[in-house]
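Suppose you are handed a protein chain with no further information: no name, no annotation, nothing but its sequence. What can you learn? This example shows the usual starting point.
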Amino acid sequence: MLIKGVDLERELVREQQKRLAKEPDEVLNAFKKLLADDDKHDEQILKAIFTATDEVENDLEYSKLNPALIFDIQDIKNICIHYRLRFLPGGLFKGEIPQEALTKIKQLERKHGVDLAGFKIVAPAAMFNLKEKDKDPLLLAPLGNDKYYLIHKWGTDLHPLRKILVYPFRNFVSLLRTVAGVAFFIAAIIPSSVMMGPHDTTSLHIRVILFFYLFLAFSGMTALYGFSRMRNFNAALWKSQYTD
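A reasonable first move is to predict its three-dimensional structure. Written in structure tokens, the prediction is:
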């Protein structure tokens, strides 16, 4: 009679099944501990995000980062000015941080062996707890040397017209351009039959006079009513913690 050999792998699996059958609570407890540790890590990350700290430098290896997600402070400033957004510490943010962002942070921390800190967020002013007192936040981590790493973006996309609607508020020059553009448009669309007198052969000189008249009039109204609502230009607000 031929005796078959012992399959050690099969025997090992059997021993494991016997042990698990006798100690089901041990596996369940281990799983619960794993979930609890993960939840605790999430809480630590949220605390780091919502803690307003001074500028820090995270020790991340550039070779392990996605170059397309590394942005200079000037890039961030430009997009904030163009869309009238704020770039402020996470400690001032009053929105919720999605789970996807926490997962990406944990992946970065494991990959680089560091605990990230000094988080900054790009978002409209309404999403921050500004002192004294639309939504498409960007979560970034500082790398030093005015470089930031984009970790996660969430929310709905900004309306494509937002950039156009806030253009007058970028700076004083853009406001003058807008006022001049509106005055020019109105002076240009008025029919010549309305502009010309019975002896005039061209309405150009009348249009030029009307343009300057409208430009001065609109400039006055902007100074009276516009500044009271706008309060300040985008270029001065993008890193301001005040309602201004």
